[in-house]
Amino acid sequence: MPARPSRRGFLQTSTAVAAGAVMPYWFTSRRSLAQENQSALERPVLGCIGTGDRWHDVGRQAMNYSTCAAVCDVDFDHALAGRSVAKERNGAKGANRPVDVYEDYRHLLDRKDIDVVTIVTPDHWHSKIAIEAMQAGKDVYCEKPLTLTIHEGKQIIKVLDETKRVFQVGTQQRSEMGLRFLTAVAMIKHGRIGQVKRVVCDIGGAPESGEIPVADVPGALNWDMWLGQAPMVDYRSKPMGGRARYPHSRVHYEFRWWYEYSGGKMTDWGAHHVDIASWALGIDQSGPTSVEPVPGTVKHPCEFQNGMPTRDDMYNTATAFDVKVMCPGDVEMHIVSHSQDGNGILFEGTEGRFHVSRERIKGRPYEELESNPLPDGAIVELYKGKEPGNHMGNFFECLKTREQPMSDVYSHHRAMTTCHLANIAIRLDRRLEWDAEKQQIVGDDEANLWQTREQRKGYEINIPV
Fold first, then answer.
1. How many CB atoms lie within 10 A of CB 91?
2. Residue 1 DSSP class
3. What are the two backbone dihedrals, phi and then psi, of residue 356, each rounded to the nearest 5 degrees?
4. Is 53 exposed, middle or buried (0-12, 13-18, 19+ CB in 10 A)?
5. Is the dihedral of CA 223, 224, 230, 231 positive or negative?
6. In 380-404, which positions are buried (b, 16+ CB within 10 angstroms) versus exposed (e)?
7. What pLDDT shows up at residue 96?
8. What is the model's pLDDT at position 436?
9. What letter would DSSP give residue 293?
10. Rounded to whole angstroms, how far apart are CA atoms 81 and 405?
11. Residue 288: predicted pLDDT
């Protein structure tokens, strides 16, 4: 990676105003009192890589169980806000230690005193940082989606197997949201709708931006390093209007709508709902048999040729879609941008149907739990014998036991493979046959090339698999 001097003040320890953030409903405050009451000397030492919008939830959660020693972000303003939050949280736990600030994550990984890292960066940086963190002896909490390509998932698993680190992915639906998704999985596992025949994952559509003009790079942002493995392009930005939090651009929250850095809604929310559906169907360690876009349902903001967008000045991920995923046992899963039931997962079986979302479960099989409850311990059994309800708490508990947490890399890779295959299918506009055991697309050499993508020189992930 090209060397680049840090911005003035990046390693200073001057104070900054903490950026306030309201805890969202899907993060619970439930946590182990034993962990909560640990002294500062007993708690693991934390390094936080990426301190933007999402980190203000993840970082606070992690600092319930750890002491933060350093923060890192290529946006200087984000880094300073992150340090302010970390110092405040440390002080509240009786650990009045300095919090160092870095622009280059490698300096943070070089720290021998740091035990664990959170990675809350744009998606295209997740894999490289996670791999190097494990190689540096750190345990890892990384936000979803973990990978930009199928190949990156294979690389992460190889390094995880070699290093034996503890690694949790930020798919909180496996732990929290009132245990609704855990209940849904348990209902399927205990045959409450008979044989599953059809599943619909409604993950919502992506926005359009229209043309976004070239703009000056903000002075606080290291644009070259933000791009990382992605191609070097002009910075673009324009106001959204209304109450939008960020302008239309390539960075911050809006990176999600560019295939160069993410996979649109297919990976952003598919990482949640496809994960739960795969778990319930028992394909979380294998995968589908085929993936096919339903004709006439896929919409992109601009024209595509050979799977590539023809314009580089507007959001380019699919805004609407219906992808049919065939699973073993002739089960049909649809990943859609819109359904009559709304965001969530619909399970249909030979003996009933129900819909689960972050807010509720509805349907006769769920109502019947009142008179015919699930067996005692059904949820705890799914949760590997541990008490469910706190995603971050599960991670820090596993740091002690050296077990893999509930949101493990292996199952996440398989769920993300389904999402990546769906994106390949809609970009190439054709059906793909998938060999889950060999992890290869069958009979389509061109499509198989899309399991990976070219990475900009200096930012490659050099892990052969």
1. 11
2. -
3. -120, 135
4. middle
5. positive
6. eebbeebebbbbbbbbbbbbeeeeb
7. 83
8. 98
9. E
10. 29
11. 98
Q: What's the CATH code, domain 33-174?
A: 3.40.50.720
> What's the token pair of residue 66?
């750890």
Spatial strand order in the sheet of 361-362: 361-362, 352-356, 344-349, 196-202, 331-336, 322-327, 290-293, 432-435, 440-442
Rounded Cα distance, 167 and 324, in Å: 31
The alpha carbons of the chain give a radius of gyration, in whole angstroms, of: 22
| CA 11 to chain CA mean position, Å | 29
H/E stretch holding 200: strand 196-202
Low-confidence ranges of the chain (pLDDT < 50): 1-34, 37
CATH topology of domain 178-375+409-465: Dihydrodipicolinate Reductase; domain 2 (3.30.360)
Q: What residue segments make up the domains of the chain, in order of their start?
A: 33-174, 178-375+409-465
Instruction: For 365-438, list the strands marked E by DSSP.
Output: 432-435
Q: How many CB atoms lie within 10 A of CB 376?
A: 8
Give the relative orientation of helices 409-428 and 270-281 as an angle to the nearest 10 degrees: 110
Identify the pLDDT of residue 241: 67
Tokens of 101: 């600030």
Nearest to 266 by CA among 198, 312, 314, 318: 318
- Kindly state the DSSP code that residue 199 receives in the 8-state scheme: E
Residues 211, 302 contacting (CB under 8 angstroms) = no
Q: What pLDDT, on a 0 to 100 scale, did the predictor assign at position 35?
A: 52
What is the reported pLDDT for 201? 98
Res 242: pLDDT: 63
**In 3D, which of 393, 372, 361, 413 has the Cα closest to residue 182?**
361
> Which residues on adjacent β-strands are paired with residue 354?
347
Position 271 scores a pLDDT of 98
The single-letter code of the amino acid at 381 is: E
pLDDT of 17: 25
pTM of the model: 0.92
Instruction: Identify the helix (H) or strand (E) that includes residue 267.
Output: helix 265-268
For 6-48, the pLDDT digits (tens) are 444 443 332 232 222 322 322 333 444 345 546 666 899 999 9
Take residue 302 and report the two structure tokens written for it.
């601009």
Q: How many residues does the chain have?
A: 465
**Dihedral-angle region of residue 190 (phi above 0 means left; psi in -120 to 50 means alpha; beta otherwise):** alpha
pLDDT tens, residue by residue, 191-229: 999 999 999 999 999 999 999 999 999 999 999 999 999
Cβ neighbours for 178, distance < 8 A, ≥ 6 positions apart: none
Q: Are 293 and 321 in contact (CB under 8 A)?
A: yes
Evaluated on CA atoms 307, 236, 127, 177, the torsion sign reads negative
- How far is residue 419 CA from its own chain's centroid? 12
- Given a contact cutoff of 8 angstroms between Cβ atoms, the answer to whether 334 and 418 are in contact is no
